[in-house]
Write a structure and sequence with these properties.
heterodimer, A: alpha+beta, about 50% helix, about 15% strand, globular, B: about 280 residues, alpha+beta, 4-stranded antiparallel beta sheet
């Protein structure tokens, strides 16, 4: 790259820092605010590329938007980012980079316009009102103690890299479908597990591969798994109730960035 | 003799077109299905010679400046009128004498239409007519129209599509979408600019949107003498007028056209003289 080009890109980069926005992360024990640079056209193209009709579309979008989120941070986040932080980032950057409305079009139906600023504010209020469900939690059943937290982006990236990247999306019979759905279910549980303590021995799952997490879960009693499921359902319910319009879920995927 | 050509942002001086160069140009641009790359090389070679400038200089001229230059070459060699047939829906096509000076003025107006800007906070992006080299190297046409960017008070001229893409991709999507919409607006304006309107023709349109294909088409229109016709005339200049072929190739096209008209007059007079002698003999 020539010196002239480099000098210029550095200047554009400094401008984007000036145009950066504050993002208050999802409720934690203490409020955390990070500074994010605005979305670039190049990043927008990457997000739109994930709009492909494939069973792994959502994981492709998740991976891409996680990368965009990380790249946009002016400074490294002081806390580990989770899926709720990412959702807030998606809405905020969508408002800043394209427009603050979204039009949802479905075949044979009237288009619906969503005010994204109202949606964002509603989500923030809902998260604040239900902050207790977002905090890390410890559950115990007999000799087992699980430490749970909202799925971090790091764990999700592990899942995408180790499992979904090599997944064969073809389902040719009901048995394969059952296996696929079952695996997806267990993967969701594995994402929220931070550590497991059996009697006095603790295994920190953040230092393990995702596949090892799955092996550990397979040997846990169903009763404690049920508590992990409840934890997940509590925080996902908050999101599902907010992220809908006229009973229809608002898509959080590449289409959010391919339409205005 | 040097001839002046006032372009959009500079004035150039070119040598007169010789018969040899004209003949070679007609040969290289001969045919309906012209290879665009070879066609462009012929144009560049011709202009490099006439301007006595390096290849890089000519290739960096924007499309409209290239055309204006070629029109000036055309005016000063073949003349300022170009005859075309226009189908207006009437029984016979209409013959229109396009005035090259007027066409040049129209092209300069089109160049002004291209000079739009997009402003986003402290970033200013200027559009401009691209060079043909930039057309060749991108699939996104709007990229080739990005000419300059100013960030705060620092300005950068965009010379290549690679630079334009780098800048475009680093912009906020709102700005990049505005660039695409501005480009679309420019194209709409160009498609509405009918070069035949000044001749009172509204049923048909002659528009110019800077593209490779439209450039080639317009240049072939400017230099549309048939190769066969040229060679036939050249033959008669040697054979009938007894003029040395090497000498003929070395003179300017303007001089050559003058000599051709002299030959035609001489032949017409000779024929008229023969006609009188025949009448006298019959008497």
């Amino acid at each position: 790259m020539s010196n002239e080009n480099k000098e210029f890109l550095d200047l554009l980069s400094s401008i984007s820092k000036e145009q950066s926005f504050e993002l208050e992360l999802a409720p934690r024990s203490q409020s955390v605010v990070v500074i994010c640079k605005p979305l670039t056209t190049s990043q927008l193209k990457e997000l739109v590329k994930t709009v492909v009709d494939s069973p792994v579309t959502q994981s492709a979008f998740s991976s891409t938007v996680t990368k965009v989120f990380n790249d946009s941070l002016v400074e490294t986040s002081p806390v580990s980012l989770n899926v709720l932080d990412r959702l807030l980032f998606i809405l905020e950057t969508r408002i800043n980079s394209l427009s603050n409305t979204l039009t949802i079009r479905k075949e044979n139906e009237e288009p619906i316009t969503v005010n994204l600023i109202e949606l964002r504010d509603k989500l923030r209020s809902a998260l604040a009102a239900n902050a207790q469900f977002l905090l890390p939690k410890t559950v115990t059943e007999g000799k087992f103690t699980l430490s749970l937290e909202v799925a971090t982006l790091q764990v999700e990236q592990q899942l995408n890299e180790e499992i979904y990247k090599n997944l064969d999306p073809e389902v040719n019979n009901p048995e394969q479908l059952r296996t696929l759905l079952g695996d997806a279910f267990i993967n969701e549980i594995a994402k929220v597990l931070k550590s497991i303590t059996i009697e006095e021995k603790t295994l920190d799952l953040s230092k393990n591969t995702f596949k090892n997490r799955l092996k550990v879960i397979e040997s846990l009693p169903a009763s404690i798994i049920q508590k992990a499921i409840e934890y997940i359902e509590n925080y996902k319910k908050i999101i599902d109730e907010v992220m809908q319009v006229n009973g229809q879920p608002i898509p959080i995927d590449g289409t959010l960035f391919s339409v205005r | 003799m040097k001839i002046e050509s006032k372009l959009s942002d500079q004035t150039l001086y070119f040598n007169e077109l010789t018969v040899r160069d004209y003949k070679n140009f007609l040969k290289e641009t001969f045919g309906d299905d012209v290879n665009e790359v070879l066609f462009m090389e012929s144009v560049y070679t011709l202009l490099e010679k006439l301007l006595n400038k390096p290849s890089e200089f000519v290739k960096n001229l924007n499309v409209i400046d290239l055309l204006c230059l070629l029109i000036d070459v055309r005016i000063n060699s073949i003349g300022d009128i170009c005859e075309i047939s226009v189908n207006t829906g009437a029984e016979k096509p209409l013959s229109v004498q396009l005035n090259m000076d007027s066409m040049r003025a129209d092209l300069m107006n089109i160049n002004n239409l291209l000079c739009k800007t997009v402003q986003a906070d402290s970033i200013l992006i200027n559009f401009g007519c691209p060079s043909l080299e930039r057309f060749a190297s991108t699939k996104d046409e709007y990229i080739s129209f990005l000419k300059k960017i100013t960030v705060k008070d620092k300005q950068l001229d965009i010379h290549t599509n690679e630079q334009a893409e780098m800048i475009f991709n680093s912009l906020n999507p709102k700005t990049s979408l505005e660039i695409i919409e501005t480009y679309r607006g420019i194209i709409t304006l160009l498609l509405d600019y009918n070069l035949l309107e000044r001749y009172g023709i509204f049923e048909q349109k002659l528009v110019f949107v800077p593209t490779y294909a439209s450039f080639c088409w317009l240049v072939k229109l400017l230099f549309s003498e048939s190769l066969e016709g040229f060679y036939t005339t050249f033959f008669h200049m040697s054979y009938t007028a007894h003029m040395d072929a090497n000498y003929l190739e070395s003179i300017t096209v303007g001089e050559y056209k003058y000599f051709v008209s002299c030959l035609k007059k001489a032949l017409a007079q000779a024929k008229a003289g023969e006609g009188n002698e025949d009448e006298e003999e019959e008497q």
